[in-house]
């Protein structure tokens, strides 16, 4: 009998212990649903009625075609600074019902801003009695209110973390009705309509729940928070655990922790550490435990992202609960103006993620989806991601931990276009609340290394952000903190641990391109790490083949409009060529700007805008990848990572165009940001011609290179006297026995003195003599530089369009590269590809272009500047034609044969002249003299009108000052 009683007691204890094992009811699937257009659901107690429609969750309303059709009166969440779309006559057809094409961003299948209700009946098991029951709503947009049956539970509005509701006091055994009201309108807490956390510019202002949705039952004595603080130097971690006791009885038990690695080839685990713990009834208690590691401790960084699982157990005679937390042993800190990971200097090579998810219209919540994105980013030589004015879901941190990337999430705010910080508006406290939620939910992830409060604020920003940085520096040393990520005209926040700002970036290609200068003078004033804000922003022409990818919640109506407009301008068959030609120039620009940063001593990193396209703000096609993170076809990761990587050979070259009576000089330097120094490294170089023939080569002495920018390697010289014909040469530098290699093209032309060919009439005016010569069958070369009227409003620089001309109200430049008929014998003495490369600089930069709007529809010039896709004008820099009985070449570039300072211009003129003097000069297309003359007489019929009075902050005088309207 005694033995039987003992067995019964043990069974009761086991039953009591197991009764608090976490159990989950998955709430994914079909929910009842109803839109609340007039916001009457609360007053009419919709939580007490059966909703009239249904929807599947996780997902958004737009995903299931709930909402309104897109019209010109759709109330978007996002600023529209270019209203010309609503007025331009040629775009009227895109403003008609049934044919609405919004150019500012991608178009969702449906649009809805306001309240919507979601409802589901759930059967609560009898064995959940006495357990704590939590409703998890991962990533909902924006405000939620929850009812159980007829009782309201509460309201939450986080944009960065899951909305978790304790339903324990409300649920009983059996069928229970859970009703959720979600409101995606901008209310009292305004993060800014252009914040990427809410705006239609990027993910869209969706309504729904997109991540995990479930009810979880567990112990009434539970882990409220577990935070792990690595101490690399002393091989230990401080583990801070908060335990809540929601029962009416005091808790007395023990807590234990142990860690074990799980994702690396090497393995390591700690011993279990145990401590007693008491928590009074209806209170909480925080305990700190020290977890020692042995000599086999694994550290986390971009090269070896080793991770541990921390298992935490809580046990008493009635409670047995545990939790597993992922973390990495790493220390990310700052010394002087350098970042260090585990005491190793690290340079941040980053891109900006703007929440581009064109299939769903909302961010991915699976680790697999984020791993795919992050592996793509890393394949392009990058090690860092900034999340512009938003914080990604937990899956992104998990994936970054696995892949090995340093993340800078931000407070979900761009407090500028409406809200302002530091003035006592709700946004002030909300940013503190949100960033604390970020630390609680994601603070243990090794990849979470940096924090910014948001993007480009207005208001009393310096005082507010100084206090914000000080708060976080005192609270959590696991990451480093800046104020907000800003452009160069924003005031400096002195207390920021690092500066993520513009002002020291870009390419000064108003001067001859070179790779000697750096940004040392610009960053000299900063004694903390300087990270370049949004470098690049170099545009490429739209890839219309991308349109078919939009099979989800979004349609690329903007692309469709641009494509049709290009066809209306008689260039539809050139779109792919425009993409590739502009893409090659885009890559060249990114290469040169990144290399300039890498050769600048003490520069700490960059945040590129971007590796991928930005779908909003007028359609900013600034990426070599599209918004799906897929290649466009003109550059591969293996090519891009030659100039963007952990190790990059660099060359200081004073110019890229030479005569053959000169000597080519290059100072070879090295950027290295590796896990270890490059020991006894040998760098070698070769110079080859286009046929692949080696003209010169050499090696530099073995040397050990520590981490740093612009490290001197050696000098090389190459006498160009042996080059007897116009040639493109290539210098390649590599770190022997590694994959690190980089190269640069340069051009050499014979230093010949040539005279004008008498049979060709050279003129700078289309005069009567030119007409007479043409009528008699002669040849005319018209240097029309400075004389163009039809097209003079189009500004062409060597640099392509910045961001896009819509967002910046047609701020120059308007041209994004050139398409060159490189196979034409016209270029027999001027080696070129089909796109503008560095040898074109003195020809192209600031040259006038000609608008061919009156030319025959199929007319194609020899050199065709590519217009902004918002205008799609057919342009020319050089064209040839038959006129009367004669033949003509017209150039709006200043190809002056007397100007010997412009070596490439002189060589192009020579090549065109030799072409005109040959039997190959036989233009296929005919023009009348008057059509050509009209270029120099009549203005363009189609000119841009902004219509809009407002403009982006970047164009407003003194926009970044601490002023209040």
UniProtKB/TrEMBL annotation:
Which stretches does the entry tag as region Disordered? 946-965
Q: Origin, by domain of life? A: Bacteria
Example of a GO MF term? beta-galactosidase activity
**Record's SUPFAM superfamilies?**
(Trans)glycosidases (SSF51445), Galactose-binding domain-like (SSF49785)
Question: Which keywords appear in this protein's UniProt record, sorted alphabetically?
Answer: Glycosidase, Hydrolase, Signal
Q: Which residues form the Glycosyl hydrolases family 2 sugar binding domain?
A: 26-212
The UniProt entry's GO CC annotations, sorted and at most eight, read: beta-galactosidase complex
Instruction: Enumerate the Gene Ontology biological process terms.
Output: lactose catabolic process
* E.C. designation(s): 3.2.1.23
Report the leader peptide range: 1-21
Reaction(s) catalysed (UniProt annotation)? Hydrolysis of terminal non-reducing beta-D-galactose residues in beta-D-galactosides
Ranges for domain Glycoside hydrolase family 2 immunoglobulin-like beta-sandwich come to 221-330
Pfam families xrefs: Glyco_hydro_2, Glyco_hydro_2_N
**PANTHER family attached to this UniProt entry:** BETA-GALACTOSIDASE
Family per similarity comment: Belongs to the glycosyl hydrolase 2 family.
Q: What is this protein called?
A: beta-galactosidase
């Amino acid at each position: 009998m005694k033995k039987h009683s003992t067995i019964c007691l043990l069974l009761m204890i086991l039953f009591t212990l197991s009764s608090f094992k976490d159990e989950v009811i998955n709430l994914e699937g079909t929910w009842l649903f109803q839109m609340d257009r007039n916001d009457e659901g609360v007053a009419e107690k919709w939580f007490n009625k059966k909703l009239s429609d249904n929807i599947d969750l996780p997902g958004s309303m737009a995903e299931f075609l709930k909402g309104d059709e897109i019209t010109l009166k759709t109330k978007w969440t996002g600023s529209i600074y270019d209203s010309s779309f609503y007025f331009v006559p040629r775009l009227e057809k895109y403003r008609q019902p049934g044919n609405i094409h919004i150019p500012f961003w991608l178009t969702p299948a449906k649009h809805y801003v306001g309240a919507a209700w979601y409802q589901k009946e759930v059967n609560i098991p009898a064995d959940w009695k006495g357990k704590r029951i939590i409703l998890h709503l991962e990533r909902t947009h924006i405000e939620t209110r929850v009812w159980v049956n007829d009782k309201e539970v509460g309201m939450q509005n986080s944009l960065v973390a899951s909305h978790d509701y304790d339903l324990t006091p409300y649920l009983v055994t059996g069928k229970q009705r859970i009703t959720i009201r979600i409101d995606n309108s901008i209310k009292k807490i305004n993060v800014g309509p252009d914040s990427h956390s809410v705006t239609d510019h990027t993910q869209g202002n969706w309504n729904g729940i997109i991540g995990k949705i479930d009810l979880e039952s567990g112990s009434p004595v539970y882990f409220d928070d577990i935070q792990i603080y690595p101490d690399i130097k002393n091989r230990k971690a401080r583990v801070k655990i908060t335990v809540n006791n929601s029962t009416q009885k005091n808790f007395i038990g023990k807590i234990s922790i142990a860690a074990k690695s799980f994702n690396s080839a090497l393995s390591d685990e700690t011993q279990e550490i145990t401590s007693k713990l008491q928590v009074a009834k209806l209170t909480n208690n925080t305990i700190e435990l020290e977890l020692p590691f042995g000599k086999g401790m694994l550290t986390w960084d971009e090269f070896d992202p080793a991770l541990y699982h921390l298992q935490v157990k809580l046990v008493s005679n009635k409670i047995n609960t545990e939790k597993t937390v992922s973390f990495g042993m790493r220390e990310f800190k700052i010394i002087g103006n350098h970042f260090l990971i585990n005491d190793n200097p690290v340079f941040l090579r980053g891109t900006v993620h703007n929440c581009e998810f064109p299939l769903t219209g909302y961010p991915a919540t699976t680790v697999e989806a984020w791993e795919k994105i992050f592996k793509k980013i890393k394949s392009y030589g990058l090690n860092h991601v900034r999340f512009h004015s938003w914080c990604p879901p937990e899956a992104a941190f998990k994936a970054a931990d696995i892949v090995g990337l340093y993340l800078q999430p931000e407070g979900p705010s761009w407090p500028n276009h409406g809200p302002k910080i530091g003035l006592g508006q709700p946004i002030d406290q909300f940013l503190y609340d949100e960033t604390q939620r970020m630390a609680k939910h994601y603070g243990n992830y090794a990849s979470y290394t940096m924090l910014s409060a948001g993007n480009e604020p207005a208001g009393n920003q310096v005082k507010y952000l100084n206090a914000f940085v000080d708060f976080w520096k005192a609270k959590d040393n696991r990451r480093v903190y800046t104020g907000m990520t800003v452009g160069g005209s924003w005031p400096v926040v002195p207390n920021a641990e690092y500066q993520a700002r513009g002002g020291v970036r870009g390419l000064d290609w108003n001067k001859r391109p070179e790779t000697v200068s750096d940004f040392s003078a610009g960053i000299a004033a900063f004694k903390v790490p300087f990270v370049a804000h949004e470098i690049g922003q170099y545009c490429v022409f739209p890839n219309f083949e991308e349109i078919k990818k939009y099979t989800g919640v979004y349609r690329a109506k903007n692309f469709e409009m641009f494509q049709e407009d290009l066809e209306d301008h008689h260039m539809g068959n050139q779109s792919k060529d425009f993409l590739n030609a502009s893409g090659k120039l885009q890559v060249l620009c990114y290469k040169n700007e990144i290399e300039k940063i890498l050769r600048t001593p003490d520069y700490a990193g960059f945040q590129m805008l971007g590796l991928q396209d930005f779908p909003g703000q007028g359609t900013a096609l600034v990426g070599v990848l599209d918004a799906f993170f897929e290649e466009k076809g003109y550059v591969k990761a293996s090519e891009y990572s030659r100039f963007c990587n952990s190790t990059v050979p660099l060359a200081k070259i004073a110019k890229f165009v030479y005569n053959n009576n000169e000597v080519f000089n290059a100072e070879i330097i090295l950027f290295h940001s590796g896990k270890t120094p490059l020991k006894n490294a040998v760098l070698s170089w070769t110079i080859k011609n286009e046929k692949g023939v080696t003209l010169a080569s050499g090696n530099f002495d073995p040397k050990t290179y520590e981490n740093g920018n612009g490290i001197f390697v050696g000098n090389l010289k190459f006498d160009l006297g042996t080059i007897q014909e116009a040639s493109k040469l290539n210098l390649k530098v590599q770190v022997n026995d590694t994959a690190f290699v980089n190269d640069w093209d340069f051009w050499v032309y014979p230093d010949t003195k040539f005279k004008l060919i008498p049979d060709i009439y050279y003129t700078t005016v289309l005069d009567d003599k030119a007409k007479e010569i043409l009528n008699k069958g002669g040849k005319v070369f018209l240097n029309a530089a400075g004389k163009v009227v039809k097209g003079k409003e189009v500004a062409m620089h060597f640099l392509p369009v910045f961001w896009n001309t819509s967002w910046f109200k047609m701020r120059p430049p308007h041209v994004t590269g050139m398409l060159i008929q490189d196979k034409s014998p016209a270029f027999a003495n001027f080696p070129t590809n089909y796109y503008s490369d560095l040898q074109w600089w003195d020809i192209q930069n600031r040259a006038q272009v000609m608008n061919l709007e009156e030319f025959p529809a199929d007319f194609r010039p020899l050199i065709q500047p590519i217009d902004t896709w918002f205008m799609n004008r057919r342009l020319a820099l050089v064209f040839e034609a038959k006129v009367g009985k004669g033949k003509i070449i017209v150039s709006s570039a200043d190809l002056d044969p007397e100007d010997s300072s412009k070596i490439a211009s002189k060589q192009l003129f020579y090549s065109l002249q030799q072409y005109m003097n040959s039997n190959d000069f036989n233009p296929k297309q005919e023009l009348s003299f008057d059509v050509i003359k009209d270029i120099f007489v009549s203005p363009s019929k189609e000119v841009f009108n902004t219509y809009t009075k407002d403009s982006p902050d970047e164009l407003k005088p003194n926009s970044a000052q601490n002023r209040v309207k």
